[in-house]
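Lab notebook, design round three. We kept the backbone fixed and only want residue identities now. Task for the bench partner: fill in a sequence for the structure below.
Input structure tokens:
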């Protein structure tokens, strides 16, 4: 499991569309009523797709740490605490730098869009700019007020916080964390969140000492690491077993269909907790690479769409606000189409700008 995984990239793109259309629906059409019976709606639970992104990030996070742990096992001596501390800091700085380079142009553009579609007097504009400072540096999920022009980037902040906390612990106690503590902690934490708030999603719900979005990031990135260990075990043990390959593909397909069904129906939010294990099955099955037809997804187009999903995710709110502003006289369905086209255009532009900046600055 060393190269990019086409099937994971495919799911990444599909779930990014779910998030895009969830926001387009809630902003342009209004939030759907989830207590009026079960019926099809325009992606009323599309925000659940964020959980997949956390899990996938945890999967590749574990792959990176696992290589370092295996390298340690082949050494004659263990790394000193000073060497490990330097490694921790270097990892976090590199991760922050790579994300910030892509985030910055999108964030500045979203700020201009916000000022254009919702102009304020000079004093209020200055206040808006000051309020945006924590989000500019991706600090909004630390507890600072979440006053960003591109609020969807809470995900990046939560991801950085989760990795900053998990990296040193998992680096030192990798197998104990991924095979024992994280699954146990995940079950208990989801139980606490469900008991106290009634559902999994929620970003700025305050849990007494931290935002709910940060807890989601820590738990789900950790569970993604556990998914990696299970996928690696399956790959090593059942690579040539066609029966396991078929059973895994069936489980993956059923899980995906159940998730999509939930995403488009007005089922109560309390059932979100059941979507997490289904998404874990997707990540494990796709990540193992042993299911029938996995190689079908290893195409340049799929890889490109998977890579584009990051820029598409970050660009979507600006596209929706512009579609709402310029398409005020259009029917909502056409506004959604315009927002989707604009989101792809912005994502393509952002992808090129990000690639250029990485080439120059990294």
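Proposed sequence:
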């Amino acid at each position: 499991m060393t190269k990019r995984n086409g099937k994971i990239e495919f799911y990444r793109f599909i779930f990014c569309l779910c998030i895009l259309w969830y926001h387009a629906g809630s902003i342009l059409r209004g939030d759907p009523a989830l207590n009026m019976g079960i019926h099809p709606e325009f992606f009323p639970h599309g925000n659940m797709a964020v959980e997949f992104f956390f899990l996938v990030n945890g999967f590749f996070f574990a792959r990176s740490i696992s290589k370092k742990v295996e390298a340690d096992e082949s050494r004659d001596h263990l790394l000193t605490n000073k060497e490990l501390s330097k490694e921790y800091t270097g990892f976090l700085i590199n991760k922050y730098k790579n994300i910030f380079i892509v985030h910055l142009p999108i964030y500045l553009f979203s700020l201009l869009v916000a000022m254009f579609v919702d102009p304020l007097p000079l004093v209020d504009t200055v206040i808006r700019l000051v309020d945006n400072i924590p989000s500019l540096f991706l600090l909004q999920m630390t507890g600072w007020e979440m006053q960003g022009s591109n609020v969807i980037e809470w995900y990046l902040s939560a991801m950085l916080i989760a990795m900053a906390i998990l990296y040193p612990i998992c680096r030192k106690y990798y197998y104990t964390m991924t095979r024992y503590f994280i699954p146990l902690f995940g079950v208990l934490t989801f139980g606490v969140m469900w008991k106290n708030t009634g559902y999994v999603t929620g970003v700025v719900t305050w849990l007494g000492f931290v935002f709910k979005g940060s807890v989601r990031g820590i738990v789900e990135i950790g569970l993604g690491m556990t998914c990696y260990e299970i996928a690696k075990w399956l790959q090593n043990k059942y690579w040539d077993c066609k029966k396991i390959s078929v059973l895994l593909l069936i489980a993956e397909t059923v899980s995906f269909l159940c998730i999509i069904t939930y995403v488009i129906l007005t089922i109560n939010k309390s059932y979100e907790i059941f979507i997490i294990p289904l998404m874990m099955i997707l990540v494990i099955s796709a990540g193992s690479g042993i299911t029938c037809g996995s190689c079908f997804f290893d195409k340049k187009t799929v890889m490109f769409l998977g890579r584009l999903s990051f820029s598409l995710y970050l660009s979507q709110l600006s596209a929706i606000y512009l579609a709402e502003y310029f398409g005020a006289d259009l029917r909502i369905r056409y506004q959604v189409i315009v927002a989707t086209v604009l989101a792809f255009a912005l994502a393509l532009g952002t992808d090129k700008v990000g690639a250029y900046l990485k080439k120059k600055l990294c």
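Keep this in mind before ordering anything: The chain has a mean pLDDT of 91.
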